[in-house]
Amino acid sequence: MQGLDLAQFKALVVRPVLAQPGLGGSAALNLLTGTALVESGLVWLRQNGGGPALGLWQMEPATHDDCWQNFLDFRPTLAATVRRLGGGGMRGRECGPAGG
């Protein structure tokens, strides 16, 4: 099965998202791209075998919630940027801590 084009993924997804909060650079670009390649092959949006991981980076819901509760909740400017990139007014598991 073939996934997303790697050059387009880097240029049209990862690079612009990193630029929003000013987190660009080749190390960050390659770390995020490489993680997505290893975790999903840029193909799978749900974990094979019925596990809980979701998205190209295969993040589990508990990890998502921990990122919000122990990191982003203490960085309101970055949290607002992440919410905006995630669709604006999204709540709950979609973009922000569960129930948050």
Strand content: under 5%
Helix content: 40-55%
Question: Counting H and I runs of at least 4 residues, what is the number of helices?
Answer: 4
Mean pLDDT: 88
Radius of gyration: 14 Å
- Number of extended strands: 0
Instruction: Describe the main β-sheet briefly.
Output: none
Structural class: mainly alpha
Low-confidence spans: pLDDT under 50, at least 5 residues?
Answer: none
Termini gap = 37 Å
Order of helices and strands: HHHH
Overall morphology: globular
Q: Can you describe this structure?
A:
The mean pLDDT is 88. The chain contains four helices and no strands. 49% of the residues lie in helices and 0% in strands. α1 (6-19) packs across α2 (26-40). It has helices at residues 6-19, 26-40, 61-70, 76-85. By secondary structure, the chain is mostly helical.
